[in-house]
């Protein structure tokens, strides 16, 4: 986002629709309004920076023994292929299995079921870039040292679409199985593996009949980490307990309880337990200064 | 910058040292403090995202007839080579010529002097990536349709260093020739050519004995655009007049009077003429709310 236009709480229209990559002329009002969920003003227009459409793309499914290996693979691939790596989606075995059970027309590329799989997407602006060769070369050392167990590189668009279809149908399969306590969380990439191991163990012990559905964008440090209660919906007490377990671990590992979805009213009171007093008082001071009558999306965020 | 730590005006230390790519939990204090030049708090630590070191690099000097052709070339290269394009430095003929005159050991790669030249840098994480072939293929259509006049691709590191040396010695050469009225400006990339044409004409007419020194990072829309007064330093009246000509055009073309260097005290009063009342009043409200006693870098920015 290069620029935005917004109606401010005092009724003024701020025209910040600049198409500039660099502009060091005072406070960054654009980033302040973005993500404020309308509580500091209503964004009415924006200028987006566009990127060239890739000419070449490649999809692969890669099997790993655990999330720790997926993080190691991410580092290897970023070193080797750089910005060509545009997707890196981790999926747990049970999460894949439920999706395949509910959508029986889907097929995974491996004969053997692996505990964890990563859907990898590469892209290049260069026409006919040899992405399959580049990926195969990048994966060699990971196969040798056991970081990865298996790899299937899509050889055409149909195979690529089949791999993506599994990933894209996870939320729908989860929904059809029952209600979940959902978490859209972020972690430092280096703590993802520890988080999954410890959170899985704590939740298995607290909720022996529930099941963790885990998938996410490892390159962004962003996991969808949900506790699924097949058959019966989680009670408010169960939801509170599951949240408490997950959020305590996120705090310990310096993560975030909302990576993508924001606070809204659902997490407005919760965030007070996780953000520092310094950050909360700065946020309240800014809200009071820009919207003294609290007319902008009241009751949300703050 | 993924996270920062800062001492806030009320004496609290805000620990925002998170290593997260995504964190949607309230107002973006990090971006608010970054670029505030210390007027909202003192940044005492930060977390940086690192990128893999490129394994392969390539430098080239490309001749174009005018800035408009350089912008067209930028678009062609971004489409063709994508994120491999990591440097795109435009230089005017007189700016190169002065540098070569003051540093006579330097040599440009072309026998004929061209009016404008672009120093292009490509990089790739892939080992032994065929960057010269990729660039040559990307330049083919630009040579055919006349967008570029000539191209010299460095065939080793010595040649690459010689090309970069010309660019890097421009500021020193400018300084040795005399005093300048300096402008560190940003423009939408699509308005760069119009800006240079019109500003050059207006300044040549107002200051027949002075000379424009123009070079910059076209990919960032960022120009160093200085009016050089060889022999005698510009008077305060000349400085004001040169600024007025340049800044009026920047306003008309939706640019910024400070791309990289900030406002400090030099541009604190000037910015009031260029920013909207809505933005200025929001900035003042934030400053008053977070630093009511004006103890943080007083007299700067605002």
Description of the structure:
Two copies of one chain form a homodimer. The radius of gyration of chain A is 22 Å and the shape is globular. Chain A contains nine helices and eleven strands. In chain A, strand 1 (3-7) and strand 2 form a beta hairpin. The two termini of chain A are 24 Å apart. By secondary structure, chain A is an alpha+beta fold. Chain A is 36% helix and 23% strand. At the A-B interface, strand 2, helix 1, helix 2 and helix 9 of A face strand 2, helix 1, helix 2 and helix 9 of B.
Strand count, sense and barrel status of the largest sheet of chain A are:
8 strands, antiparallel
Q: Give the strand tally of chain A.
A: 11
Mean pLDDT rating of chain A: 97
Percent in helix of chain A: 25-40%
String of helices and strands of chain A: EEHEEHEHEHEHHEEHEEHH
Could you give the distance between the termini of chain A? 24 Å
Q: State the largest interface.
A: A-B, 77 and 77 residues
Question: Radius of gyration of chain A, Cα only, in angstroms?
Answer: 22 Å
Q: Please give the count of helices of chain A.
A: 9
From the spread of the alpha carbons, the general shape of chain A counts as globular
Assembly type: homodimer
Structural class of chain A: alpha+beta
Low-pLDDT segments of chain A: none
Strand content of chain A is 15-25%
